[in-house]
Amino acid sequence: MQTTQKPIERLQALLPDVFEPQVQTGELYLKFYLGSSLTVVIPLVQVVETLRISAHQVSPIPNMPASVLGLMSHQGKILWALDLSKLLEVPQKDARSRQYDIIVVEVMLDDGQESDCQFLGLYVPQIQGTLRMNPEDLIPSFEEIMPGLAPYLQGQFQGEDEKLFLLDVDAVCSAESLYVYASSS
Asked: SS3 of 123, please?
């Protein structure tokens, strides 16, 4: 006599990995390229979302640094859009794109009197996706890195086939070059 199994029991027998909890270690990071040979990650907890927008959705602002693309509107909020490669002086092909890959981050700005939350859109040439890395594997030294980039990095991970540099989003958002124009007006 053959016993009949419920559909869920058959699935559990056929696909046991799907029904067993997976233990995942490490933290999630968003991986993206800044230049042809520079791969960067930021903690996913600092990312509000990623977008692909048309270039005409960014309104240029005159007399701003080259790293400031302009202003953009998203979900009823006005955000500054920054070209991260230009801000960090990472060489890349000078091709104007019709589409922007934008990483929206939330940063705390402290003006000395009170802290304020600000959303920023960081344009990067290419978003690669997410990966899980163990923070204990972070190497605080930087090998073969551009000297001007070091203040904006927290360290590096050794990936499977490449070095991944951990970007300090707060340091990027307080970059002196962003505020030179504001103080000279």
From this structure: strand
- Residue in 69, 83, 68, 91 with CA at minimum distance from that of residue 148: 91
Q: Which of the 8 DSSP states describes residue 3?
A: P
pLDDT tens figures, 9-37:
888 887 777 777 777 788 999 999 988 77
* DSSP label of 148: G
Q: Residue 122 forms beta bridges with which residues?
A: 82, 103
Q: Which domains does the chain have, with CATH numbers?
A: 25-184 (2.40.50.180)
Structure tokens at 147: 């000297």
- d(C-alpha 118, C-alpha 137), whole Å: 30
Cα–Cα nearest to 31, from 128, 149, 138, 132:
128
Predicted confidence (pLDDT) per residue in 84-127, tens digit = 998 888 887 766 678 899 999 988 766 555 556 788 999 999 99
Phi-psi region of 82 (alpha: psi -120 to 50; beta: other; left: phi over 0): beta
Token pair belonging to 9: 């029991």
- Separation of alpha carbons 15 and 18, rounded Å: 6
Enter the pTM of the model. Answer: 0.79
